[in-house]
Amino acid sequence: METYSFLRHFADSWGLLAMAVFFGAVVIWALLPGARRGQEDAASIPFRHDDRPAAADRSER
């Protein structure tokens, strides 16, 4: 069996199974109750240090 055929067969069977298991693990990890704090922290990143409007730069008028 040549290398290409072997790798193609591996990717079609075990590679696909490995990717499906990895995807399932990521989905389960994301839905765990303990992951909520990290998700909320990541969701608020754009709003950190947004206590006041940015100072107007008067040199660009």
- Got a strand count? 0
Structural class, from secondary structure content? mainly alpha
Quote the average pLDDT: 84
Please summarize the sheet with the most strands: none
Report the uncertain regions.
Answer: none
Strand content: under 5%
Helix-strand topology string? HH
Q: Radius of gyration from the CA trace?
A: 24 Å
Can you give the helix content as a percent range?
Answer: 55-70%
Shape descriptor reads elongated
* Total of DSSP H or I helical runs spanning 4+ residues: 2
Distance between the termini: 70 Å
Structural features:
61 residues, 0% strand
Describe it for me?
This protein has helices at residues 3-31, 36-43. It has 61 residues and is mostly helical. It is elongated, with a radius of gyration of 24 Å. The model has no long low-confidence stretch (mean pLDDT 84).
Summed up:
By secondary structure, the chain is mostly helical.
Element layout with pairings:
Elements: H1 3-31, H2 36-43
